[in-house]
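Late entry, (3S)-3-methyl-2-oxopentanoic acid complex.
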Amino acid sequence: MGKYRWLLLALGAIALSSCTATESPSIDKNSLPLGVALAQTGNAALYGQESLQGVQVAGEFFNQAGQIKGHTLRLVIEDTGSDEAGAVNVFQTLINRDRVIGIVGPTLSQQAFSADPIAEQAGVPVVAPSNTARGIPQIGAFISRVSAGVDVVAPTAIQAALEINPNIRRVAVFFAQDDAFSRSETEIFQKAIRENPKLELVTVQQTQTTDTNFQAQINATLNLKPDLIVISGLAADGGNLIRQLRELGYQGLILGGNGVNTVNIFPVCRRLCDGVLVAQAYNPENPDPMNVKFRKAFEAKYRHTPSQFSAQAFTAVQVFADALARLSQEKNLSEVPLGELRQALNKEILKGVYETPLGEIRFTPEGEVLQRFFYVGQIEMSGDGQTGKFSLVKKVER
Ligand code: 1QQ
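Prediction complete; structure with ligand written out below:
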């Protein structure tokens, strides 16, 4: 142990040569620093804040459980903002300054495609809590996710829309062309529409995540008389688009993807959010014991029902906590050099089966999550448009 301690100190001294700290956090024998890189500011903060609540609950929950032998988790939380540069910066800081054992984050797929390669190169395991674009686990061996990809979640929602209204024929699609997740999701939606012989894709409209006025695209679309409009965008633009579609007279069904899967769109479209269908990877009513425990802890702390983003972020921390618990049965984690620990942890993460608030999950060797149930929710707003919720309309088994 003495030998490793000196090695770590030496490595720490090199990594921290520009810092005033005398001891690297990773040398604190009892706490293992876990990086949390989420958007707390910018347009993705509407998701990142929900995720952070899940992370905070998980940190307390798993430390109380005391499952990592001789150790606790110490969350090192940094705001990435909502762009690529912010995520890259935070990843570098967490890896080199804080010497974290792994990272939960970043919020957007758009950020992950820039930031994850940094962790991959440094050999630091990343568990993504909310990246759903195609190609995220394929960034590298150290990158996995607990957020099921657009391929598995999106088609279910088209099916649900047809069950609610079997007369749907003409479908219009909107997507935010400056966002990686939105481009990926719309591809899946468009494929599902094209492959259904009953449906006709009447238009594909491009928007930007920074747009606030969609009048031109909406007018062009409503002339084509669609009976279903499918939206892939982020929360603020998606919420505004929903509101303006209704204001300009569209009365048919609206289906939103993962970007509008947050109660944080309610203040944007208010009463006009009512009836929007959303594909979801989490159902708060899931009776699994771990979900019951998660909800109890979450609701005691925050006094509201957890959302998908909170549940997925809790799950991402759980994956680290459970994998570390198993590793700690085999060796004293304080004696393992950081580089080796990161590597062993990544292997252990991919091997595990986890009983989580999302149900039982495991990973493919590539780091893609395998999850059993998916859901379609429908937004129900109160008459005054002040409060709302997602009510379950469909549960699908994979
Ligand atoms: C992604 C997403 C966003 C909608 C959630 C944060 O799914 O960027 O992959």
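Confidence is low (pLDDT under 50) at residues 1-27. Will revisit in the morning.
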